[in-house]
Amino acid sequence: MTDRPLKQIHLAAHFPGVNNTTVWTDPAAGSQIAFESFRHLAATAERGRFDFLFLAEGLRLREVKGRIHDLDVLGRPESITVLGALAAVTTHLGLAATVNATFNEPYELARRFASLDHLSGGRAAWNVVTSSDAFTGENFRRGGYLDRADRYTRAAEFVQLAREFWDAAGTGTVRHQGPQFDVEGTLSVPRPPQGHPVVIQAGDSDEGREFAAATADVIFSRHSTLAAGQAFHTDVKRRLAAYGRKPDELKIMPGVTWVLGDTEEEAVERAAEIRRAQVSPATAIAYLEQIWGVDLSGHDVDGPLPGTDPVRGSGLVQGRTSLGDPLEIAAEWRAVAAAKGLSSRELVIEVTGRQSFIGTPRSVAEQIDRHVQSDAADGFILVPHLTPGGLDEFVDRVVPLLQERGVFRTEYTGTTLRDHLGLPVPGRR
């Protein structure tokens, strides 16, 4: 660290969807469909003076062995619809929706986000995701036509065209001819209050980092340990100059969990209990099957990893993000399990755990501040293990300590999401 002024921490809240983060067996777990759940989490985040609420989204329920994955049975309402309703019951909180750039069209998306930005008074954000998944593509006319190598090519032109529509709104016609889109038209709503809604991106590959440096305002990163966060922060920020951008024009916000206790020991014990609840035996089996590509329903999760090699491309599990080459992953996992003496379930707990801040409220506040002041992150997107009340304890016990340290706002000083993030309003191009 240097003698520079203290960096201000950015915080956002993630509403978990279909996943194994939420402990659905906990009596305090509520609905992920009912509007009251979304309203409660949004109200808590706004009470904590968070920058924004973040909704993920999937376009098809995952399948394991030809059946819908147990954790996906309920699904979740479409994100922009939910956020439009939340705009009416919040006043400052940013509203971030995940919308796929592969299976949507720029005009229609630009219109929807411009509408949300107007209805919320300038609080909309778009998390840009892509897909080369033929399984997901079966829900759409185009199917799974898009090669994996082309997904960021389409996304970059998609974002460019959406911004052209936002810039031309109320002033003229957009005429665009490119490799992916040939469009001529006018946006049917005025230019958004923020100029452009905030753009969020989550890709971690080299092409994803380059796409973010050229295009995004926020990165939803997975690099949440101190060393990994610093390396990622340095790499992405250095890329900005090539696009005429300054380092503070892109905020890096890893997704993290947290567990609090009155003592450090209590927090560690509670964290272990939560992780075992998150990874049930059935969840561990489903995760192993994603790598091994074979039916493991008879496998003992309290014993060692399967002794056979994975089967590439079996199609047993569909709709899950690829983790890489299954043979290489299995070899890495066996090495970790052998080194640490882990059973199959314990190994899944080890490799699927998102970096957590674990400790007393004061030590968690210190950990978060250390990461930000050390340039491992600009802030964090908090992922609670309970819906909808999981954020309450953090807001009540940790936020006041961050405010006491002078690194987090006590009141909102602006009304738009760009105000909260310290991002400039783009001029018309």
CATH topology of the largest domain: TIM Barrel
Shape category: globular
Mean pLDDT across the residues is 89
Q: Could you state the CATH homologous superfamily of the largest domain?
A: Luciferase-like domain
Q: Mind telling me the C-alpha Rg?
A: 22 Å
Q: Output the number of helix runs.
A: 15
Structurally, the number of domains stands at: 2
**SS elements, strand count:** 15
Coarse structural class: alpha/beta
Distance linking N and C termini: 38 Å
Low-confidence stretches: none
Helix content: 25-40%
Share in β-strands = 5-15%
Question: What CATH architecture of the largest domain would you give?
Answer: Alpha-Beta Barrel
GO molecular function: monooxygenase activity
Keywords: Flavoprotein, FMN, Monooxygenase, Oxidoreductase
Pfam family, one: Bac_luciferase
EC number: 1.14.-.-
